[in-house]
């Protein structure tokens, strides 16, 4: 953040040390830090009154906040961002953490989905936070498509891939669909498949429907459009989100309103709102990215932080992401190398299985 970088450059050594000590203490203990506490830890021996003046200046700059009168200071979101960008010291990955993550690959006998489930559980256990694993979409050519009505507002599409993989996906069909229109839609798509992947099929679908709309029932055309949009559209891709460690995150906050905000976050995650954004966030920068509070609209209500890193396939294409959700006072210096290493592990696994 440019503003944070400018403020950091303008600080003198005393202000920078006071700021760093406040943030480090808050990240470790979660409590406001007072001036008397700082007098015992600063390299320079100064009075509590002098430190209070420095903290007041930092509060005026928007870097610190005082939650209660005479309760000490805590970092603001701007302060946390400035600390992460300019003062964070990232540790080397702990040997024990590395062994726990390596163990998730096991014998390699499981399918990729099973291994990624274990990776999510291990990442949650190692970080004591909630882990996210966005799994890659299946991109093999399709052999056959079938639609099955499950009611007036639910339908199932059965996808048979050329490599033998079979997937069943639920979606909401357009109003008025009938068994006949579903058969027409399936026949239309099966005639177009020709060994194409879903992404390729979607690209030619619009032109084909526009050209051949008179040849198929209107409902069938709507069903095709709705079905493919649900597979490849915004907010609900064919990728799968694995969330592990919800209890860890809930257990970090004692306040009732905090618990309510975190539950709201997980309700959003479970409904898969904005899940497509995880890849967009990861693709926007190299390596591990840290999002604090309202910097990510998904976490703006809960006040949580996200540490996320993309992983790539053998062609160096970003196909998924792994991350950790926690309170804004995450131990970033420890979490960043864990997320980075986990992303490398998953990328290696995907490359070996492809």
Automatic annotation (TrEMBL):
Lyase among the record's keywords?
no
Q: Select a single GO molecular function from the record's annotations and give it.
A: DNA binding
Give the top-rank taxon of the lineage listed in the UniProt record for this protein.
Bacteria
**One Pfam family hit:** HrcA
Coiled-coil portions = none
Enumerate the transmembrane spans: none
What's any GO biological process attached to this entry? negative regulation of DNA-templated transcription
Alphabetical keyword list: Repressor, Stress response, Transcription, Transcription regulation
Domain Heat-inducible transcription repressor HrcA C-terminal span(s) in chain numbering? 115-336
- Family assignment? Belongs to the HrcA family.
Recorded hits in PANTHER family, A to Z, give: HEAT-INDUCIBLE TRANSCRIPTION REPRESSOR HRCA
**What is the documented function of this protein?**
Negative regulator of class I heat shock genes (grpE-dnaK-dnaJ and groELS operons). Prevents heat-shock induction of these operons.
Q: What is this protein called?
A: Heat-inducible transcription repressor HrcA
Native organism is Salipiger thiooxidans
């Amino acid at each position: 953040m440019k503003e944070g970088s400018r403020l950091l450059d303008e600080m003198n050594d005393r202000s920078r040390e006071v700021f760093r000590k406040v943030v480090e203490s808050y990240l470790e203990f979660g409590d406001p830090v007072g001036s008397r506490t700082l007098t015992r830890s600063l390299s320079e021996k100064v009075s509590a009154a002098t430190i209070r003046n420095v903290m007041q200046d930092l509060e005026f700059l928007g870097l610190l906040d005082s939650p209660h009168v005479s309760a000490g200071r805590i970092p603001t979101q701007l302060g946390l961002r400035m600390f992460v960008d300019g003062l964070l010291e990232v540790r080397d990955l702990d040997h024990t953490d590395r062994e726990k993550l390596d163990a998730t690959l096991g014998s390699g006998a499981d399918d990729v989905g099973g291994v990624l489930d274990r990776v999510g559980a291990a990442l949650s256990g190692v970080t004591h936070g909630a882990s996210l694993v966005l799994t890659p979409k299946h991109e093999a050519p399709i052999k056959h498509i079938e639609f099955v009505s499950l009611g007036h507002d639910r339908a199932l599409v059965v996808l048979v891939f050329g490599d033998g993989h079979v997937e069943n996906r639920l979606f909401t069909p357009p109003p008025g669909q009938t068994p006949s229109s579903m058969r027409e839609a399936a026949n239309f798509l099966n005639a177009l498949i020709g060994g194409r992947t879903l992404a390729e099929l979607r690209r030619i679908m619009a032109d084909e429907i526009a050209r051949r709309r008179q040849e198929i029932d209107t409902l069938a055309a709507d069903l095709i459009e709705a079905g493919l949009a649900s597979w490849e559209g915004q907010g609900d891709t064919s990728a799968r989100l694995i969330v592990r460690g919800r209890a860890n995150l809930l257990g970090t906050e004692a306040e009732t309103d905090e618990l309510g905000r975190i539950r709201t976050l997980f309700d959003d995650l479970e409904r898969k709102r904005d899940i497509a954004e995880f890849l967009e966030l990861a693709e926007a920068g190299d390596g591990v990215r840290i999002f604090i509070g309202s910097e990510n609209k998904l976490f703006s209500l809960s006040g949580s932080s996200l540490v996320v890193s993309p992983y790539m396939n053998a062609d160096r294409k970003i196909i998924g992401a792994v991350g950790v959700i926690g309170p804004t006072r995450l131990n970033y210096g420890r979490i960043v190398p864990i997320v980075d290493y986990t992303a490398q592990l998953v990328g290696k696994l995907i490359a070996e299985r492809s």
